[in-house]
Amino acid sequence: MRTTRRGFVGGVSAAALLSGGAAYAQKGKYDVGANDTEIKIGNCIPYSGPASSYGAIGKAIDAYWKAVNDQGGVNGRKVRFISLDDGYSPPKTVELVRQLVEQEKVLALFNTLGTPTNTAIHKYMNQKKVPHLFLATGASKWGKPKEFPWTMGWQPDYHTEAVIYGKHIVATIKEPKIGVLMQNDDYGKDYYEGFREGLGKDVGRIVRAVTFEVTDPTVDSQIIQLKDSGADVFFNITSPKAAAQAIRKAADIGWKPVQYLNNVSVSVASVMKPAGFEASQGIITAAYMKDPTDKQWDDAPDMKTWRDWMAKYLPGANLADNNNVYGYAVSSTLHKVLEQCGNDLTRDNVIKQAGNLKKVAIPLLLPGITVNTSPTDFYPIQSVRLQRFKGETWELFGDVMSNESA
Amino acid sequence: MSTANPADAATASAAAVPASPAALGADRRWVWIVVAIAALLPLLQFVMPNVISDYRLFLMSTMMIAAIAVLGLNLLTGFNGQISLGHGAFYAVGAYTAAILMDKLDLPYWTLLPIVAAVCFVVGFLFGLPALRLEGHYLALATFALALAVPQMLKYKWLEGLTGGVQGIVLLKPEAPFGLPLSEDQWLYYYCLIVTVLLFWGAWNMLRGRSGRAMMAIRDHHMAADTMGIDTARYKTVTFGISAAYTGIAGALSASAIAFVAPDSFGFFLSISLLIGLVVGGVASLPGSIIGGIFTVLVQNSAQALSNFVKNDIGLPYDLSPYSVYGILLLVLMYVMPTGIAGGVVLAWRRLRR
């Protein structure tokens, strides 16, 4: 039945092609998942479960492609974005990704979220030779084109970022005594190891490192321990809730170290404001993306475009949520790749173009930070800028810092 | 009657299963037909590669794995009347035992199942000892705690060298032995099928014998069973062990199928979905365990497809999350078939024949 119907449709379209003449001949070269009118992109993100706050990224990406399609798509082709809920469970991710690749036949997988979930499909994607692009994870293992030529990360990895803090401390503070607060999981450890590497031979300057569980209600006792250790530099490896608590508690007990805060918690609305602007003065962090709650970007054209897009395509979504900025910026990167592919939408060409981004300016990245890749460099964003909290916003200082060798 | 006994519904559905020898004979014929069809299915792949795709075979393998896990829980909860909210813990122990043996000792995957079964039996047996003092809700709470604790324990720093901590362990997929011309997914399917058939056969044998009757007697009336001379303490702990071993084997199979284990794979929802599979499939029913396994895999997937369908294809403005669809489905099922799908089908069949 199916074949006959397909045959019928095929016949009709063939007739249409013939009557339309050469103008209707297929425009380009395709693998499965792409044709003259459509490009299929697959994705898995937790919309449910413990990590469901990241679901906002999936919704933002979906809205981004809706906006692109409303303006005529990419090179005349609409992008169909298929996003499934894996609940941050690796076995579920394997099952869903196989569904996307083998049943839905997507051209590429894009911005799948989470370190364990991506680890579970890493080998599979490379066996199947399907582009596995711009993963939403800060682990440092996604840029190895030799072993895994089909997988590419996106954001600066935690390790690189922490190396930069370590180097900055060594360069600017004499005889520091460093206290570290870290979340007890892979994310915390990635940062901590990078930090030790950045300190180099001064690694002994860490006088105290304390951990906490992501489920702990407060980090008060850890902050008191750090104060008692006599530390005068504080590296804060925490996600937003604990970050705000730590900054607040330090101020409350009169501990005034030089504070370094990881990029995970740079949101003014969800960290600095609850912690208190008074308590947050002088905190140093590294950033690559513009914070939507930071007033200094209010007049930037890309921020204005973003706000208009939010109003039209994501009405009701939280304008202070960094995830919406992230989703927009990472989709712009894929947009650029698909544009560069032109009419050659094969998987080979997609990964080739992803590895051929030369100083591409992406909206909502900080001034001076661009996306840069090559066939041997699969780390798209490797630069950050240091910034210091002043008044009610972040103030950039110093040059763009890179760790291109990583 | 014991009022706190959670398995009252189970008794009803167990009674609904025909027990006469003739009916058993008919049952057995059906079982052979189902197994034969299951065994032939991958061969059809050569004829209809689009219908029997690699992905669908993989999906069916995960269904069989879930069916074994649900069977494990069923032995404990359905046939022995002890509630467990924490079978995900045994599933995790099985998966990690297999993964560590493959990763550290390079044991071939097919030698693992007996070891995994033994390890999980011991763990389950030991957990069953204190559980003897806990009845009904208290046991449910204790197992609940176990399910919450295991993923955390896997991350513990003393175990990290073995378990790989939060990073987990990446494994190799099983390949077909003896140079059989089977793809990875086909072989995985056969491997799961063989294990499933063996385990269900074992459970069936155990349940129809003396031990099975003793297990069910304890469920139905603990004191009466005691009076009849059944060593209830021993039966309950051993059942706990066997149940854990079954679920652990399912975990080991899933480690092979997914080729990766991490603490995030064994969250609390795993335990709940096993329990849902048990109740929806049919408490105290072997076919019910298979239905439950199929249900846990299939319905979570189709709930997602359904919610996408409503949003994108029909274009309704409702943003139904897959879990609300899943929840609605569960409510409807429980209302229409209170004894689970297996019990419901038997009832419907009887009503039709009348």
SS-based class of chain A: alpha/beta
Beta fraction of chain B:
under 5%
At the fold tier of CATH, the topology name of the largest domain in chain A is Rossmann fold
* Quaternary structure: heterodimer
Integer average pLDDT of chain A: 88
Could you tell me the strand content of chain A as a percent range?
15-25%
Task: State Rg of chain B.
Answer: 20 Å
Main sheet specs of chain B: 2 strands, antiparallel
CATH superfamily of the largest domain in chain A: Response regulator
- Gyration radius of chain A (Cα, Å) is 23 Å
**Secondary-structure element sequence of chain A?**
HEEHEHEHEEHEHEHEHEHHEHHEHEE
Number of helices of chain A: 13
What's the total count of β strands of chain A? 14
Count of discrete structural domains of chain B = 1
Estimate the helix proportion of chain A, in percent: 40-55%
Morphology call of chain A:
globular
The total tally of domains of chain A equals 2
CATH architecture designation of the largest domain in chain A: 3-Layer(aba) Sandwich
Please describe the biggest sheet of chain A, giving its number of strands, its sense, and whether it closes into a barrel. 7 strands, mixed
**Any idea of the CATH class of the largest domain in chain A?**
Alpha Beta
